[in-house]
Design brief:
Elements lengths: L2 H28 L3 H23 L1 H13 L2 H26 L5 H23 L1 H11 L17 E3 L1 H6 L1 H7 L7 E4 H11 L4 H20 L4 E4 L9 H12 L3 E3 L2 H9 L4 E3 H6 L1
Parallel strand pairs: 1-2, 1-4, 2-3, 4-5
Length: 279
């Protein structure tokens, strides 16, 4: 028995009972038969509860959980901080609003709390990079992301195509790639999306890519790390990867011709897996 089915039954029962009381109330107001109105509202409430309950409970919860799992830790932290700041501002404004005449004194504090909480979340999640850059200018001692190691080795970013290709595992074992290999969370999410595809070929490619990540983590001489660093306001994975490489000033390892050309046009160094394999 699924959780959605249980919630459907619970919603049907709750709204059916509520429909009975609503039917009795309507009958008292209109002067009709309470049994007739109660039966009608019972059926309507049960039908609404059976159909709509999952869309109001289980599915929004599952969508929220999926979004939280996929969101970078930096974005989640920004959302929490934005919510806290928004609620603090709302709390400071609640006292003067409570001095207004009724019903504004009861309604406006709640509305303002919701509004500022939402604005705080939106500002921190959509402009977090600008805010972090402002903080870094005030505190220049803090480093941004992974920097070059003491011997001058910088990390490299792996894209989806090079992970699925698989030759990166053999290359990494030779020690040719000296810096840390970084896999952004959005690349990992794309691999998972491919692995969950209904198309058998895409599904196999995605699963091969996930298996390759496990192999790289366990066998590669060069360390592999999943990073939560992201580029807000950009949807395409390739665009995110190029902008992240520019921010970290590190190369991208790929065998995607289009990504190679786009990255080079934007001044990002690219390590082509085909050239590395033939080196």
């Amino acid at each position: 028995m699924s959780v959605e089915f249980i919630f459907r039954i619970a919603g049907m029962i709750i709204l059916a009972v509520g429909g009975i009381f609503l039917g009795i109330y309507v009958a008292a107001q209109l002067g009709g038969s309470p049994y007739q109105y109660a039966a009608i509202f019972l059926l309507v409430g049960a039908l609404i509860g059976l159909v709509l309950t999952p869309y109001l409970t289980v599915r929004p919860f599952l969508a929220l959980r999926r979004r939280i799992r996929q969101a970078p830790a930096q974005q989640l932290l920004g959302a929490v901080l934005g919510l806290i700041v928004g609620l603090v501002i709302a709390a400071l404004s609640s006292f003067p609003l409570s001095q207004l005449p009724s019903p504004f004194s009861q309604i406006l504090p709640f509305v303002v709390a919701v509004l500022f909480g939402y604005l705080g979340i939106m500002v921190m999640t959509t402009r977090q990079q600008d805010i972090l850059a402002l903080i870094r200018r005030q505190f220049p001692g803090r480093a941004e992301g992974p920097k070059a190691e003491g011997n001058g080795r910088r990390p490299v970013l792996l894209d989806t195509s090079v992970i699925i290709d698989g030759r990166i595992a053999d290359i990494s074992r030779t020690g040719f790639i000296e810096g840390e290999m970084l896999v952004p969370r959005f690349v990992l999410n794309e691999l998972q999306h491919i692995a969950d595809s209904s198309d058998a070929l895409r599904r196999n490619r995605g699963r091969r890519g996930l298996d390759m990540l496990h192999r790289l983590r366990n066998e590669a001489v060069t360390p592999l790390r999943i990073t939560d660093m992201d580029i807000e306001g950009v949807r395409e994975v390739d665009d995110k990867l190029v902008l992240l490489a520019k921010r970290l000033q590190c190369p991208i390892v790929t065998n995607d011709y289009n990504l190679n050309r786009v990255a080079e046009l934007q001044g990002v160094r690219v390590l082509n897996i085909n050239e590395l394999a033939n080196a």
